[in-house]
Amino acid sequence: MMNVEMFELGPVMTNAYLVYDSQTQKGVVFDPGMYPDQLLQRIKKLHVTIEAILLTHAHFDHMGGVEEVRTHTGASVYIHKKEEDWLADPMKNGSGRWPMMPKLTARPAEHILVGGETLQIAGFQFKVLYTPGHSPGSISFYDGAHVFSGDALFRDSIGRTDLYGGDHKTLIRSIKGKLMELPDQTVVYSGHGPETTIERERNHNPFIAG
């Protein structure tokens, strides 16, 4: 059975997700955010073996805790090919663009994705959807009932496109061509804010509806 726990981490309250099977005690982490102590304490308390760290994209607020979580869990990191070099580049991941922000870097990811793959990890199956626009290598992970959309789609909103490599038209194409094609009842776990559903966003999101 899939359990999904969300943790708001870092200065911009980024959603990190711990997804695990309470029977097998195996799981994955989506977007470990920054300052992931709370997440790591929960993993330790549950005695969950983390088999993968899945990055929807490499902005600093989503990847800032990668090294700490990787060190504590031994899990491999997955990222899209177009952002594999962002982990080591503060200007691309954005941490080098904010004077008060530490310049964040991480070692290379163990697994590079391009979109279209089906991942079998921790007893779960995730289809990798290439959903660029918020950033060039943004991806979403769909398991048939839930989609982890990163900063592509939010409840009543969409990701910003004024950061390095962002493009509004590309994002709208990604949302309409990939995410809005998912079943209505699909639960959307976004990079910020509360969960929603594809049906709700199709009908009420002002950037999509109409």
Automatic annotation (TrEMBL):
Does the keyword rRNA processing feature in the UniProt annotation? no
Query: One MF term in GO for this entry?
Result: hydrolase activity
| Residue span(s) of domain Metallo-beta-lactamase | 13-192
Supply the Gene3D superfamilies for this chain: Ribonuclease Z/Hydroxyacylglutathione hydrolase-like (3.60.15.10)
- One Pfam family for this entry, by name? Lactamase_B
What keywords would UniProt list here?
Hydrolase, Metal-binding, Zinc
Q: Does the keyword Transmembrane helix apply?
A: no
Cofactors required: Zn(2+)
Protein name as catalogued: Glyoxylase-like metal-dependent hydrolase (Beta-lactamase superfamily II)
Source organism of this protein record? Baia soyae
